[in-house]
Design goal:
Two copies of one chain form a homodimer.
Chain A lengths: L5 H4 L4 E7 L3 E6 L4 H7 L18 E5 L1 E3 L4 E3 L9 H8 L7 E3 L9 E4 L26 E7 L11 H13 L5 E2 L1 H12 L4 E7 L3 E7 L6 E7 L3 E8 L5 E8 L9 H6 L4 H25 L7 E8 L1 H8 L19 E4 H4 L8 E4 L9 H10 L8 E6 L3 E7 L2 E7 L20 E7 L6 E5 L18 E2 L1 H13 L18 E3 L5 E6 L10 E4 H25 L6 E5 H4 L4 H6 L11 E5 L1 H11 L2 H12 L1 E2 L8 H8 L5 H4 L19
Parallel strand pairs in A: 1-7, 9-11, 12-15, 15-17, 18-27, 20-29, 21-23, 27-28
Antiparallel strand pairs in A: 1-2, 3-6, 3-7, 4-5, 8-10, 10-11, 12-13, 13-14, 16-17, 18-19, 19-20, 21-22, 24-25, 25-26
GO molecular function, one term (chains A, B): iron-sulfur cluster binding
Pfam families (chains A, B): Fer2 (PF00111), RACo_C_ter (PF14574), RACo_linker (PF17650), Raco_middle (PF17651)
């Protein structure tokens, strides 16, 4: 990454930057380019020239004004002044005056930045971002420069034996093995570069690559293989730097949205092999994308660390997952495994290792272990509750004394799936909803458009459906505006024009009028949708209750919301509908894609893999359905809370008081 | 193998049995079936019913009379009497009276048995036979019967972890790994047979297969990958028994007969990969054949040990062999390597190991190491000279104190290739030639026909060319009949009708008249052919001289002729033309396919692999062309010896005296 301007570097402050339409926000060190800031957040901006300012593809727009939702005052002056290239482009009319090249403009203050569709590398919104943790760099894969003198008639050894001797003498690497693929490259590598070789060694025991000349840079990939999304992060194994990230839809989505359907799709070895290949091909494609982004070859990627839930983990290995779908939900393998890339059909260096972190149980996967590795509940006294909301809800409750885990049958409602107008978090999805509790006026915002629905013409909105973050908003706001009661039932007596009955007589609430949509009909939230959210949040809450009871505690010291979904929802509103136990709003944090961070940690620091193996063995998996109180907890928890009674920390905030007028302006 | 009849079993004697037209001969224990005897010699007889006497495909013919060449008096009474099946077939006219089912007829005395073409499984003659050595059975691969109780909600481990625990508790197998292929079979194997599993373990460290139920038999394959022929032996890894053997032409033969042309054919990675695949596919096919023969699946073959010369070894691994063709002839890898079958494209158990024995140098391969392992020169005081005549001639000279090896540039003449009428040892090839030194009458015998040419009508012979064994005969007999002198020149003055000049005026000697051939013209041996044989045998002799000089000895204590060719040539006549130093005719032995035997030893006894690795490091490779005396030795050795002076042990035998009248009857 390029270093900041000298005059800017003196400013040690950091500023809040929010990238729209994804809504991804972070504290960014002053002087960072917008493109680097976006990259660190996993937001991919087109960059053919890799940041040299010559391709002009990375342009973004600075939004002006005060954005109360994020408490950001954004202004063009909060960026470094135009570079010559940019002024030139604007003069020639090839760039708008409010646009900047994100690789040239550096952060000097708070910003709300809009990334137009054409500047984004992928059209699916990347929501899995890389955290900003400090990671020790001590990788499994290292490159060594070696000079191998040419063979002579007198040398009584083969080339490989001579090379192994040199590795032992000069690097202390004894009893080395060599992968067949690497062995095959030895004759060619030797012929060039005067005997100078770069030898790539895995785990101090196996040569996995030999190239002619000195090429010391090494790269690895961390992968979070989700039921819905696959996120991949390319890292330098020397500096630990996250160089690029990319994500793709898990192509198995076409074969079942949820875990159980996915298992059913693996019926027979041919179908299983096909499902395996889908993911392998997508990973190969992501590797290709990432390699191109930083101008390396896929053969330069010499290790992958992958985390996944147990079903994705088994299918990725080509192991029949059926046993995971029936009592006793037994995995075929739990411990971490190391497999050659070629054996899994991943097109990186064929001899590269794919490290799959250990899984805990049938419903608690290595993604959960990775979250624990990243958040470290086992390293401190504070009792952490970590909630990873993916297609399934996974919980960890623990501290240095003990760790418990559970899997909650949330269903996909919290991700916006299986609702009347539910959709994925892609452009056009309603992502925020506000209802004025006095006037009951409603406004919303869609992904891909920075403006609230009440600030622009109806035909400029083009809403397509409702995604997960808005689902939480809707239930919380309906409750706050007393449009639903604490059992979740619509309060028909209120008489809102938005609350009506469909042709079958069922109650529904209009979120977007047909004129505001791109689908030509009203987008509604139904009584059934509210029930689905109640079941999902009830499962999470009751799961946490079971774990707290096992632990003998009333509430956690900290609640960490992990996962792509966790980073986009409004935490206050999630608390208001009772999604998790209260530990004080200041102790409830969104930690982004902690599973991906855990994978990256294990990629960069080999010793942390041992820690992960220990975590997987330490964590006690609690099968919720086997707990005698879970069912009653679950039923109770489907109710919507009375904020004052149940959530002391909400007193004076959203649900406890009328909100401030500004919020509903 | 079926056990012999009780009444026959009491006879503890053994008898000489010779199988025609291959000429393969051995001492066979009385009571052994002809089919088993043939099988042990690597002669494959068709056997669809696997010896039950029901398929009637294994019929052979008993030749009657005294066969002086082998000193055998063969008679139908020297076999057990007809079984009911056989009498029935003869009655019905479905079998000739002189035919027997080889799976039913048991050896009771000396026999000359003819195996008709239709009873042989392959049409190429299998000349690589299995030796009769005693081998300790302590294989790398073992099967274990395990009972794996079903998983429960309480079991906190995956299936594999539970299985690994049982293997450790019950079998003492700690810290086990599992191959991905085996892991994939675990769910299915578990579902059946009430939790009883058979687990195949390699080297006490890796599970390579899991099947449901108890299936304890394990199988391995020993392979001798020659430049021309690939021989494969299927062995039981429990009993050590050689169950079946098969051979095939090395399909690379179409891309160069000799080593140097073969190297040239590997130009570019695509061509190299194609050459690799050819051999891999042929090995897969041989595995399929062998598996069918003993009614197992190819997945039951759980290890292969392979030996080859260094070029074949490198190409088989997919390693560019070009460096082996130019000074300093340096191999890319010497030490033994273990590679998964799937990584080499061999269709046996995908997770099976392919063990390639170590090579010594660019021109001395693992076949040479295997020969030393089988013959054990390093284990005794006697100075052994082992000559392995393949497409190249490889020498080992050594005893417990020291071992030397060399590779002689013999060229393919000794195998019958590159001669005017040279051909491979397949049916129709002239394999034996005799010239009466008094009358200068010539007779010959072809493969596929047990009778000498002077005993049958000319049009029943159908000679097609001359193979390696006849080449030695011809030169020795021409010399003995004084048709050539000691410089190898034809003695034109003798005035034989067979000695004539071709249209270009070059001298040639007619071996078979056109009427005796299947090609419609005279089959001749030319002056140039004699020169080629002189160069080949001169190289072998001079190579041995260099090694003896390094050792400080005049002659070896023992000469062992290994290789397919070694087992068919007439050793006395080979000595008469000066192919190797004299150590007394009684100390010159043909040891058959010792390389194949060495591979089988390493397959069956894991500890012998360590011994092989030591041999490869111990043997000092002598580059003949670097020896200052080699060239002069070579020139001298191209001359044909005066038997009385140069070969004391031949005094009174072939070259020293007129032969016995019977020999030339």
């Amino acid at each position: 990454m390029s270093s900041p301007n000298p005059q800017v570097n003196q400013d040690k402050k950091s500023h809040r930057v929010c990238f729209m339409p994804m809504g991804t926000m972070a504290e960014v060190a002053a002087g960072t380019t917008l493109r680097d800031a976006a990259k660190d957040l996993g937001v991919a901006i087109e960059a053919v020239c890799n940041g040299r300012g010559s391709c002009h593809k990375c342009r973004v727009r600075v939004l002006e004004g005060h954005f109360e939702d994020h408490d950001i005052r954004s202004h063009g002056d909060n960026l470094s002044s135009h570079r010559q290239t940019e002024s030139h482009l604007i003069e020639k009319g090839r760039m708008r005056a409010d646009e900047r090249l994100s690789c040239q403009a550096r952060v000097l203050g708070e910003l709300m930045v809009y990334i137009p569709d054409e500047s984004r590398r992928t059209h699916a919104v990347v929501r899995k971002s890389l955290g900003q943790r400090e990671i020790n760099v001590d990788p499994m894969v290292r490159n060594y420069r070696v000079e191998l003198p040419p063979a002579t008639l007198a040398s009584r050894l083969g080339d490989w034996e001579r090379l192994a001797d040199i590795l032992e003498e000069q690097q202390g690497l004894a009893a080395m093995n060599i992968d067949l693929h690497a062995l095959r490259t030895l004759p060619q590598a030797q012929r060039t570069n005067g005997g100078v070789l770069t030898v790539t060694v895995w785990n101090d025991c196996e040569v996995i690559r030999i190239v002619g000349g000195e090429r010391l840079a090494t790269y690895g990939m961390a992968v979070d293989l989700g039921t819905t999304t696959i996120a991949a992060y390319l890292c330098s194994l020397e500096t630990g730097e996250a160089l690029a990230s990319a994500s793709a839809l898990n192509p198995q989505v076409g074969h079942g949205d949820d875990i159980m359907n996915r298992i059913a799709s693996c019926n027979g070895s041919l179908k299983l092999a096909a499902m395996q290949k889908m993911v392998a091909d997508t990973l190969s494609q992501l590797a290709r994308q990432l390699a191109m982004q930083v101008s390396i070859t896929t053969d330069d990627i010499s290790e992958i660390v992958l985390v996944a839930n147990t079903v994705m983990h088994h299918i990725f290995l080509g192991i029949d997952p059926h046993a995971l779908g029936v009592v006793p939900f037994a995995p075929t393998v739990c411990r971490s495994v190391d497999i050659k890339a070629r054996d899994l059909g991943i097109s990186i260096l064929p001899s590269a290792n794919i490290h799959l972190m250990p899984v805990e149980a049938g419903f608690v996967g290595s993604d959960n272990v990775a979250v624990a590795l990243a958040e470290g509940p086992h390293t401190g006294e504070a009792l952490q509750l970590i909630i990873d909301i993916g297609t399934n809800g996974e919980l960890i409750l623990g501290n240095q004394d003990r760790m418990l885990s559970a899997s909650c049958p949330t269903g996909p409602a919290l991700e916006g799936a299986n609702l009347s107008f539910g959709m994925r978090a892609t452009p056009g999805a309603i992502e925020r909803v506000r209802i004025d509790p006095t006037t009951r006026e409603l406004r919303f915002r869609v992904i891909g458009n920075p403006y609230w629905s009440n600030k622009i013409a109806a035909n400029e909105i083009g809403a397509l459906g409702i995604c997960g973050s808005a689902v939480i908003d809707i239930v919380a706001e309906l409750l706050n505006a007393e449009l639903i009661d604490h059992s979740g039932r619509f309060v028909e007596e209120i008489g809102s024009e938005r609350l009506r009955r469909d042709t079958d007589g069922r109650l529904e609430f209009v979120i977007a009028w047909a004129t505001q949509t791109g689908i030509g009909r009203d987008i509604c939230f139904t009584q059934a949708d509210i029930r689905a959210v109640q079941l999902a949040k009830g499962a999470l809450y009751a799961g946490a209750q079971v774990l707290l009871r096992k632990f003998g505690r009333q509430q956690p010291d900290k609640v960490l919301i992990a996962g792509a979904f966790g980073s986009v929802i409004d935490l206050g509103r999630a608390l208001a509908i009772g999604m998790f136990p209260d530990s004080g709003l200041e102790n409830i944090l969104s930690v982004g894609n902690a599973a991906g961070d855990g994978a990256r940690i294990a990629l960069l620091d080999a010793r942390r893999r041992t820690e992960a193996d220990q975590i997987a063995r330490l964590v006690e998996y609690i099968e919720l359905t086997a707990d005698p109180y879970f069912n009653q907890d679950f039923v109770d928890a489907t109710l919507l809370p009375h904020a004052e009674d149940d959530f002391p920390s909400l007193k004076g905030s959203l649900a406890g008081q009328r909100p401030k007028p500004a919020e509903y302006a």
